[in-house]
Amino acid sequence: MKNQFSRAVMPEARGQDISAVLRGWEVMLVEILDLMLERYEQQPDYPFIDMKFNTVTGTDFSVPDDPKKDVKSRNVVFGWIQGRALEALVGHVKWFRDF
Questions:
Q1: Closest to 39 in 3D by CA, of 63, 55, 23
Q2: The Cα angle at residue 90 between residues 73 and 72, in degrees rounded to 5
Q3: Are 51 and 36 in contact (CB under 8 A)?
């Protein structure tokens, strides 16, 4: 995925400032939702939202030699993070309907 977003600094939250960056945010949200669906389709037997990957390289986090130190791989699931992800996903689905 190539970076198609530009940095925006808004010293004041004026309507025109927000309008200038809104389209970029919409595109970013759709891209992230698309990535989430792609990751699900790659392994539909994994029942959790799986966004555990290195955002720089795009590769999944590997399982460390010591499983007690594993907090990044897909083998470890944090219930509160999954709950928050599902809550956010519902909000995005509502937003996407009106997109």
A1: 55
A2: 10
A3: yes
With a CB cutoff of 8 Å and minimum separation 6, the contacts of 84 are none
Structure confidence by residue, pLDDT tens digits, 48-97: 999 999 999 999 999 999 989 999 999 999 999 999 999 999 998 888 88
> Roughly how many angstroms between the first and final C-alpha of the chain, as a whole number?
22
Q: Name the residue among 80, 6, 73 with its Cα closest to residue 46.
A: 73
In sequence order, what are the residues at sequence separation of 6 or more whose Cβ sits closer than 8 angstroms to the Cβ of residue 52? 60, 61, 72, 73, 74
DSSP secondary structure, 57-88, as one string: T-PBPPPPSSGGG-SSSTT---HHHHHHHHHH
The domain limits of the chain are 15-97
Between 61 and 7, the more confident residue is 61
